[in-house]
Amino acid sequence: MIHKNLGFFGVLLIGLFVLAACNHEADDNSEDTNVTPAPSDNLLLGRWGFSRIRHKNSGQWALKYGEVVFLEDGTGSHQWQQNNSGSLESVSGTFTYTTLMGSDGSFIVTRFESNGETKVDRYVLSNDGQVLIKDGTSMGDRQFMWVAVKIESDTGLSPGDLSGEYYGMDYRKFLNGATSAGSSLIDFDGTGNFSIQISLNRGAGLEQLSDSGSYSVLANAQFMVGPYTSYFNGSAQFGIASILDNDNIFNSHFYLQKADINYGQAHIEGQWAYVGFGDHDVSNPNVRAEFGHLDCDADGQCLFSLRITRSDGTQDAFEGPEQITLAADGSLSGGLVADTAPAYTAVVGNGGNIMLINTSTGFSDINSDDRAIGLAIRCSDCSSLLLQ
Q: In angstroms, how far is CA 67 from the centroid of its own chain?
């Protein structure tokens, strides 16, 4: 087991990572870098909906939620709503861009913004081309989690596209200082109503809640699910969401359709890229971001290699094994999942291309006083992501 406050799984400390700045995020903009891997084909064409939660060591929190569009001619645009330390704002802009591939399966996008700034981001793309993640660990003065879903603009979604059971996962921070991390099982009736079972950690162990509400389709290919504005992929099997009209909340929420296929142990096999975000110690929070990869065999033996950056200024790299069992409905057990955790603590979905993993205390027994979540995407070309 790793010691509490150090992050994620039961692993072996490799050592403190001294890292060249690969992602540098301006006050509320994307990350700058001078990494220049070999050229690649354009992997980003199209429209993406994203959510990003960020913390600075100074104590500032920010949420971004919106869209970015990459066009074939090397131009693009983005627009988002943000909660920047309690100030709600709308932002938009245009850019030109280039794409470069790294040897580890990640790639670098350099954007030349219309305001004269140059921004450089390090991404990993899922095998099915539906999900993008960014490395949120490389800057010592901040931690963030950024996830985007591909939006199929020519696919009209309806309330009937959200039907049946979905897994949910959420991390949130309140301006009053409280944090929470939760997992849930949501039942959509296909006509605009849902019910939800929630397990969450707000600092005093797991709480169990239930609720119900309504959902609808918005004009811009989004769903409104209760208070959450939500983007889904074209199959409506995976979605991201945030609460946008409340200046007291910074949160990222994820949906994953339950049992979209009949899963077997072999669906874990392969390479996965991972991002995580959370905090330790309610009385004196130490916020962290996690990035790395998983290498799993067909029997569910997974080697986790992670980098963890914390708001106390420390940064570590870890490597270690976990034995995971995958059920037919996509739920995971064993290894990092506590024996008493709900069945929706860690799950696989979207055709075996996405994992959601709640590593909070109560969901997992590897750390005490933690609220933390993680997301992994299947990436067959990914390896040694920590070395970039």
A: 16
